[in-house]
Amino acid sequence: MNPLYEQMETSVFERMSLAAARHNAVNLGQGFPDFGWPDEILEAAAKAVTEGSNQYAPSRGLPVLREAVAAHYNRHHGLDLKAEHVCVTSGATEALAAAILAALSPGDEAIIFTPAYDAYAPLIRRAGASVREVALQPPEWKIDRDRLAAAVGPQTRAIIFNNPHNPTGRLFDADELESVASVAREHDLVVISDEVWEHILLDGQRFAPLASLPDMADRVIKCGSAGKIFSLTGWKIGWTVAAPEMATLAARAHQFLTFASAPNLQAAVAFGLNDGDAWIAPMRERFARARDRMTEGLRSAGYVVLDSAASYFLCVDLEASGIGLDDESFARLAVEQAGVAVVPLSAFAEQNPPTHMIRLCFAKRDETVEAGVAALAKARELAR
């Protein structure tokens, strides 16, 4: 069998969620919300099941959804996109897979910023390419242009860029975006820009897509997610957005991954994108309140919590919190003895991973956050 998969461990998210279920623990590990979705979109999906098509959708996606995605970004970012720029996929991870398979060939190299979403490295290797890591350093997690440029080699073909950033909750600033763009332009690289958290912005932050920077539209493949936009992660509706030539290549890879996604969910997402944007500000406010509730509770319990500007996530520095255990040991103690599942940050890097931090998902109801904070207070006492 393929050694890539024979030697691969189960995803840390699956592992911690299974542990949470086994120990009846509060699950602050896997990144899904338990509130926040618009009921109107659920009703649109249900109606599409009984009144719409339940057969194969076009592989590139329902035209109504491709047009809605293009219109959404034109409205929010002043772009000039059309349906031909868009390919609908079965979630953003499948979008990443299609983009990576389209962009990389055996023997190529791709750069990732670590800590990184754990799908990047296996997908790069599945394309026959090699991974080059550029480590971001806590607590700022800033991109250093010189370190990025130094990682580019003769076989480097792509940069995998994630903004806003999972797992750190960082929103990269204009200078950091230009650092990535300038290196890509200088070395003629494709950038696969994972922008799934683009609407989960807190504290009045503003997001700029990498493709909007000068001379980047023709070298960026953007990956987006309806699951993140509408807090419906189980729907697994995502997309790639790119210049038509690159969009077509990503679509060719997509057609032999999942071919097409559920038509009723595509129709409902199109409805949601076209129905206006009144849901965005209230969603951001609810997530900001949840983040603040968790942060305040953890700091009161003696934890050192790093700032989070976007996404569902915040990071806790165990070492600075007076805890001598590494992140894996603490995560095991927390779920087995204190009743709360967390994610060790070392799972997000392979070379010199940080072993003194954990990631928590704050996109939870008040009672879930409070139960998780209480369990983490217990875990801190057990670990000291």
From TrEMBL:
Its cofactor is pyridoxal 5'-phosphate. Coiled coil: none annotated. The keyword Transferase applies. It holds the Pfam family Aminotran_1_2. InterPro entries: Aminotransferase_I/II_large, Kynurenine-oxoglutarate_AT, PyrdxlP-dep_Trfase, PyrdxlP-dep_Trfase_major, PyrdxlP-dep_Trfase_small. GO terms for molecular function: transaminase activity. Keywords: Aminotransferase, Pyridoxal phosphate, Transferase. Residues 25-375 form the Aminotransferase class I/classII large domain. CDD domains: AAT_like (cd00609). PANTHER family: FI04487P. This is Aminotransferase.
